[in-house]
Structure formats: structure tokens, C-alpha cells
Amino acid sequence: MRLLTDAMLGTLTTYLRFAGHDTAYALEEGVEADDAVLGLADRENRRLVTRDRGLAARGSGSFLLTERDVEDQLAELAGQGLDLSVPDEPTRCGSCNGVLERVPAGEPTPGYAPVAASSDSEGFRVWRCVDCGQHFWKGSHWERMAGTLAGL
Ligand SMILES: [Zn+2]
Known about the structure:
With 152 residues, the chain is of the alpha/beta class. It contains 6 helices and 7 strands, in the order E-H-E-H-H-E-H-E-H-E-E-E-H. The protein is globular.
């Protein structure tokens, strides 16, 4: 699912990327005015996620949120039919929405990331963003986010 999240939805954006959705964030894209937001959604064929009722009504297939808390917002989206199941592997960078690739076992990783293993049983499998270089693995951060999605 290709999505565009409205301003003030930064944490939600991270969750949507975690769940594997190609999610552009209005603030990162530098679009603020209603027409600019709708124009971007249209150009990139993205469904808008917003708390703005008027904006939601103007975009086709928009997801309208009424809740403020991110877990409640996720539950609202799941209730509107968005698949928020925990993926087997991460596919999208939570920081920039870039595509992730597996780091081959034994290849060097930055200091904040674990050594890349070839399987879960041998350690952490590690992925890196092809756009910004951020590394990801199924550590405590992953477990927290997966736990939140599993609990919706
Ligand atoms: Zn990235």
C-alpha cells in the first residue's frame, strides 16, 4: 500500500513503514498546504492518512483518523482495512522510507548495529537502507514495535 501521512503523524509514519507500507511523510517531503499534499498523493498514487476531515474528503481513498494516540490511530487504520500485521522481515526504512537490503553475514556493520549473521539462530540478521544507510535488526526496538502491532 502506498501512503502519504499528513504533518504531525511522524510516529505513526514509522509504524506504517515498519509494517511494510511505502509511506511518504508530508513533513519530510516539504509539503504543507492542502493543495500540495493532495497534489503529491495524486502524483505518486498514494492514499492520504490525515486527521483533517476536509482534506480526507478531498483525497480519493483517504484514511481519516480521529484519535491522537498512535496506538489508537493504528487500531483505527486496521479497522479501516489497512494490513498492519507484523512482517517476517523489514522492507522499509523507518527513517526515510528507503528500501532495505540484507547485509551479508560477516560484512562490517556500524558500531550501533550488531554483527550480521546469516540466520536468526546464529545471531541477528541485519538490513540496511539503500538510501540513507541506516541499519535495522530484530532487537528490542523491533520487539516493541511488533508487540504494539500484534496487540491491536
Ligand atoms: Zn533510510
